[in-house]
C-alpha cells in the first residue's frame, strides 16, 4: 500500500515539476507512510527526492515508534545535539522546486528557505493532497466503518437513549465523545451540542447551557478511527438534530425544506458534476423555501485521514467530482437568537452514483416526551 502511494507521489512530482517533497506534521505523512509526526518543536520530516530514496529524519529517541518499511523509506535519527534542518537541507540541496506539507511549522520552513536559498516552494497539497482526495477501496471501507460507528451514536440520540433535558450541552457532548470512542474511534475530533438559540451558531462550543424542553438540539460529532499500529485512521463526521418536545410548525416546515435540500444535493453528487453545482442544488432548494439567506456556509468538505480536506463543495470550485472523492453534504439554516438546524452525511462519488455512508434517519426525532 505505502510503496504504491510513494510511486503515485513520485509520478505527481514529475507532473508538477517538483524535485523534492518534504512532509512533517499533519495528515500527509500518515497517509503516505503510516507514521504521524509528534507536533512538537523537534523536527520530524520525510524527504522524498525525485531521483533518490525517501528518508525519514526523526528524533533518535522516537525511532522505536516507527513501523519500519525498508522498501518505502529509510530512517535517520538525529540526536539532541544535531541540527535536523541541516540534515533535511543536505538531502534537498540543489532542488529547483520543493513541495512542503502545508501543516509544517513556519519555524522549520523559514529555516529551510534560508538554507536552500535558490529553491522555490509550493504547498505539497498540490502534489499529495490531490492524490489523497481520490480514495482507494480500502480507504472507503475505513470511512464506511467510521460512518457506521457514528451512525450508532446518532441512533442512540434519536431514540432518546442519550438524555438531554436538564443536562448541559457540555455533559451531552462528553457522552457523545465516550460513545464515539466505544464505536471504534481512537480520537474524538469534535462533539458540538447546540441547544435552542445556540444552534444558530454553526460551530457552537458546547457549554454550560442547560437543555430545556421544547427546543432544537443540534449535534455534530466525529472522530478518527482506531487502526493497527503503522496505519492511519479515518475520520467520521455527522450532524443530526432532535427536538425536545413537539416542534412548532414553522420549524417543521423549515426542517422539511432542509431535509429535501440535503437529499437533492446527495443525489446531485455524481461523478463529473462540479463541486459548486452540488452546493448550488442545496442552496436553490433552500431559496425556494425562503431560507437561503440563513445558509451561511459552504455545502461540504472532503474527508479522509483529515476531517476537512479537498474537495470543498463551495461556489467558485468548478472542479468536477471524481470517482473516489469522499465529502460531506451538510446544508443548514441558522437564525440568530432563534434556532438553527443542519443535516450532514458523508458521501462518496462512485461510477455507480453517489454512495451515502451515513444511513441513520434524517427525520427530526422528537425526544424527551
Ligand atoms: Zn464545520
Ligand atoms: Zn460535522
Ligand atoms: Zn463536516
Detail the topology: elements first, then pairings.
Elements: H1 2-15, E1 20-23, H2 28-33, E2 45-49, E3 54-59, E4 73-78, H3 84-92, E5 97-100, H4 106-115, E6 120-123, H5 128-132, H6 137-158, H7 169-182, E7 185-195, E8 216-225, E9 238-243, H8 249-268, H9 275-288, E10 300-302, E11 309-313, E12 326-329, E13 332-335, E14 339-342, E15 345-350, E16 353-356, E17 365-366
Parallel strand pairs: 1-5, 3-4, 5-6, 9-17
Antiparallel strand pairs: 1-2, 2-3, 7-8, 8-9, 10-11, 12-15, 13-14, 15-16
Helix pairs in contact: 3-4, 8-9
The structure holds zinc ion (3 copies).
One zinc ion (ZN) binds next to loops.
At a glance:
With 369 residues, this protein is α/β, with parallel strands linked by helices. It has helices spanning 2-15, 28-33, 84-92, 106-115, 128-132, 137-158, 169-182, 249-268, 275-288, and strands at residues 20-23, 45-49, 54-59, 73-78, 97-100, 120-123, 185-195, 216-225, 238-243, 300-302, 309-313, 326-329, 332-335, 339-342, 345-350, 353-356, 365-366.
Amino acid at each position: 500500500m505505502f510503496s504504491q502511494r510513494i510511486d503515485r507521489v513520485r509520478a505527481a512530482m514529475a507532473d508538477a515539476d517538483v524535485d523534492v517533497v518534504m512532509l512533517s506534521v499533519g495528515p500527509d505523512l500518515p497517509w503516505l507512510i503510516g507514521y504521524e509526526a509528534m507536533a512538537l518543536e523537534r523536527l520530524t520530516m520525510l524527504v522524498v527526492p525525485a531521483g533518490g530514496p525517501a528518508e525519514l529524519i526523526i528524533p533518535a529517541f522516537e525511532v522505536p515508534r516507527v513501523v519500519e518499511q525498508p522498501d518505502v523509506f529509510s530512517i535517520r535519527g538525529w540526536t539532541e545535539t544535531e541540527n535536523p534542518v541541516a540534515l533535511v537541507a543536505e538531502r534537498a540541496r540543489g532542488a529547483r522546486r520543493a513541495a512542503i506539507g502545508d501543516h509544517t511549522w513556519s519555524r522549520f520552513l523559514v529555516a529551510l528557505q534560508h538554507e536552500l536559498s535558490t529553491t522555490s516552494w509550493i504547498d505539497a497539497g498540490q502534489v499529495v493532497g490531490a492524490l489523497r482526495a481520490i480514495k482507494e477501496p480500502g480507504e472507503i471501507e475505513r470511512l464506511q466503518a467510521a460512518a457506521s460507528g457514528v451512525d450508532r451514536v446518532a441512533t442512540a440520540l434519536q431514540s432518546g437513549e442519550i438524555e438531554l433535558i436538564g443536562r448541559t450541552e457540555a455533559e451531552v457532548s462528553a457522552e457523545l465523545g465516550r460513545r464515539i470512542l466505544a464505536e471504534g474511534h481512537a480520537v474524538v475530533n469534535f462533539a458540538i451540542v447546540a441547544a435552542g438559540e445556540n444552534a444558530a451558531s454553526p460551530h457552537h462550543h458546547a457549554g454550560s447551557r442547560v437543555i430545556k424542553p421544547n427546543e432544537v438540539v443540534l449535534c455534530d460529532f466525529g472522530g478518527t478511527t482506531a487502526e493497527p499500529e503503522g496505519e492511519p485512521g479515518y475520520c467520521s463526521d455527522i450532524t443530526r438534530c432532535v427536538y425536545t418536545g413537539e416542534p412548532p410548525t414553522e420549524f417543521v416546515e423549515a426542517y422539511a425544506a432542509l431535509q429535501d435540500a440535503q437529499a437533492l444535493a446527495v443525489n446531485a453528487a455524481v461523478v463529473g458534476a462540479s463541486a459548486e453545482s452540488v452546493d448550488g442544488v442545496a442552496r436553490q432548494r433552500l431559496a425556494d423555501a425562503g431560507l437561503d439567506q440563513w445558509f451561511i456556509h459552504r455545502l461540504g468538505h472532503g474527508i479522509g485521514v483529515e476531517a476537512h480536506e479537498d474537495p470543498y463543495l463551495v461556489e467558485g470550485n468548478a472542479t468536477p467530482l471524481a470517482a473516489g472523492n469522499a465529502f460531506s453534504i451538510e446544508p443548514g439554516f441558522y437564525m440568530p437568537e432563534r434556532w438553527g438546524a443542519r443535516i450532514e452525511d458523508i458521501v462518496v462519488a462512485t461510477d455507480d452514483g453517489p454512495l451515502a455512508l451515513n444511513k441513520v434517519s434524517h427525520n427530526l426525532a422528537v425526544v424527551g416526551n
